Amino acid sequence: MPQIATALPFGFDFDATTSALIVIDMQRDFIEPGGFGETLGNDVSLLQAIVPTTAALIALCRDTGIPVIHTRECHKPDLSDLPAAKRDRGAPEARIGDPGPMGRILVAGERGADIIQEVYPITGELVIDKPGKGAFYATILSDHLARLGTRTLIFAGVTTEVCVQTTMREANDRGFECVLIEDATESYFPAFKAATLDMIRAQGAIVGWTATFAELKHALNG
Ligand code: TIU
Fold it and tell me: For residue 112, which of 29, 160, 170, 174 is within the disulfide window of CB 3.0 to 4.6 Å?
């Protein structure tokens, strides 16, 4: 059984045949100018740094036979799955559902809500559209993982302390062993990323482990 010996807070044992990679919300709306991330007042260029490593991680998992699952945070065109508590965020003139340079902000089927080309899903990979921050809430993810027999989840994507951490906590509560790939996740706030990595692995991996892409690759390639 592979081990990421240098994972934090201590060695992480996993079986590639019962693992899956979850790539969270690598969408134009978060990573490119003119989207939801920018309307919330963020500098989206920070997120672009992880794109090459995330692409390499996806390629490694495909080569190793580890299923790759992609998520997109987005809403139905009629916004029936968008509670007011979520809608009333960001600049009043550019909220979820409003028109923007990449189509309606965070709405399914619009250009901004789609995944950036560099990490685009290939045929056969599950793409989950989710209305919440967590990928388990109001989606088929649990059922899909049960069918696959998945026990370990490898995490990547954006943003570290929002949708990635929320999904990792949901997964931990559902009994999955979780490892977050540090250089394949990013936040608009470097201090929040660092704090999230710390809080995930604190207290004896209370939520899960963290490791670098190179460490995972070494473990898989022996
Ligand atoms: N705002 C922010 O940091 N993130 C989100 O709204 N969604 C995700 O993290 N995907």
Answer: 29
